[in-house]
Write a structure and sequence with these properties.
By secondary structure, the protein is mainly α. It has seven helices and five strands; from the N terminus they run H-E-E-H-E-H-E-E-H-H-H-H. A hairpin with a 6-residue loop joins strand 4 and strand 5. It is rod-shaped and about 140 Å long.
């Protein structure tokens, strides 16, 4: 391929990358993302400080049919500013645009540190709480249905719940009911005493 055609091919890829970044970040303008002239040193796509904040990568473009990958990666690293990750953008005829970047950088893109594990724990805790709540509701519903039927079925299906209820009835009143009975008995005694006093007073009046 003639040098002029090779430069035009490289320029087309730089423009594709530039237009893609501007499309994905509408807040940026053409002054923030610029395709450099062919043969100029440094990064192939220059970014402003604002663009660098949104897109913290240093771009090296290669639109070639045959490529020395390691040499291209060295070039991308040499041109990258200290705070940016070198990004090698590749293309050849009849193939989509591809990128080469460090493995750790790729992992942070698909699964940011500390986010995936906490989300999984929250999902697990929510699921366990839901299952426990549902189980408790089912058990309470089953117990209530058995009491309403009065069929004597309880734990183990041997009539123990019914027996315990009968035992409670036979044992008599509980502490609260005993207090009420004692209070009623005291009231009766007071009334009786009052009636005796009234009767005595009436007898003396006669």
């Amino acid at each position: 391929m003639r040098p002029q055609s090779a430069k035009a091919k490289g320029r087309r890829l730089q423009q594709i990358v530039r237009d893609s970044i501007l499309s994905r970040f509408p807040v940026l303008t053409q002054d923030d993302v610029r395709s450099t002239s062919m043969g100029a040193g440094g990064e192939d796509v220059q970014l402003s400080s604002q663009a660098r904040t949104l897109f913290p990568y240093s771009i090296e473009c290669k639109n070639q049919e045959r490529l020395n990958l390691w040499s291209s990666l060295d070039q991308a690293k040499a041109n990258a500013p200290p705070s940016c990750t070198p990004l090698l953008v590749l293309k050849r005829n009849n193939d989509p645009v591809r990128v080469v970047l460090p493995w750790d950088t790729f992992l942070n893109l698909v699964a940011p540190r500390g986010s995936s594990s906490s989300e999984e724990e929250e999902v697990t805790l929510s699921k366990n709480k839901g299952e426990t709540k549902e189980k408790g509701t089912q058990e309470r519903g089953e117990t209530n249905r058995k009491r309403e039927r009065g069929d004597g079925e309880g734990e183990g299906g041997d009539g123990r719940v019914g027996d315990r209820e009968q035992d409670c009835d036979q044992k008599g009143a509980g502490p609260e009911e005993e207090e009420e009975e004692e209070e009623e008995e005291w009231v009766k005694k007071v009334r009786k005493k009052a009636e005796e006093i009234v009767s005595l007073c009436e007898g003396r009046g006669r």
